[in-house]
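New to this. Please check this protein:
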Amino acid sequence: MTDPSSEIILHNYPQSPVAEKVRVALGIKGLSWRSVEIPRLPPKPMLTKLSGGYRRTPVMQIGADIYCDSQCIIRELERRHPTPGFFPTQDDGLMWCLSRWTDGLLLDHSVKVVLGAGVDNLPADFAEDRGRLYLGTDWAERLRAANAELPHLVSQIRAPLSWLDRQLSDGRRFLLGNDAAAIDAQVYYCVWFLRGRWEQGPAFLSEFENLMHWESEILKMGHGSSTDMSEEEAIERAGECTPVAVSGDDPNDPQGLAPGMEVVVSPDVDGGEQPVEGVVVAVSPETVTLHRKDADVGDLHVHFPRAGYKVVIA
């Protein structure tokens, strides 16, 4: 029987591309997990009770530990379940660097294509929320600009996809060979988003025969084994558990972060999101862990990546 304190709980919703990245990662490892479906739009009171305000999707919960951003999620899954590994070659550093491109420019261009192409049909509340989240305060103007420059944006996606198609041209199953790796999930979710959410996506992707075969291999692998869990059950689970003890400082940290400091963490883009306040428990070049206490849940550890996030000393 699974120890409740170690059970993987993924707060997600089916249409989320970044959640699809993590679902594929769970499939690579063949893991069992619980799925908590959260609202597509804020407010998300049950999720933010756990995270302290973080509202992006997905969030992974294990007991009273809350992992924000797919970087932290993938890293923690690898730590807890090292076999099969996310890094079948000795190139994990390069794969992490490449993931900053997939989560940066590739996702940015994909979002602009999907939102820009559908600008006239998007529900007003969804357009405002996602436009603000991805495009900034002047999201309406940027959305119109994306619609106007759609062919250019598509060309910016087409070039790297042609490179990936060539990478797969020797018949390998996955990007690095015959074993799936984290980078497969980190690229796949953008392709999945384009195929499923852009009307011209399937026609556009049909040019890349090797990439389509790779997509079929990802689909065969699946998402592991999931069963549903309610938001209320997830909250109750956190309240029954104690956060995993972690420690660590980084004498070379550029900001001088150290355990015991009160800080505020938020994504390093202005998406109009609520920052998360807490006390530093551990810090490294890759992550920062905060302790926070919720009146209803109790003690929680909230884990953030350093790349892509801003930490401000309170």
Remarks:
- DSSP finds eleven helices and ten strands in the chain.
- The CA atoms of residues 152 and 302 lie 39 Å apart.
- The beta strands are 9-12, 32-37, 59-62, 65-68, 225-228, 262-267, 276-283, 287-294, 298-305, 309-313.
- The longest strand covers residues 276-283.
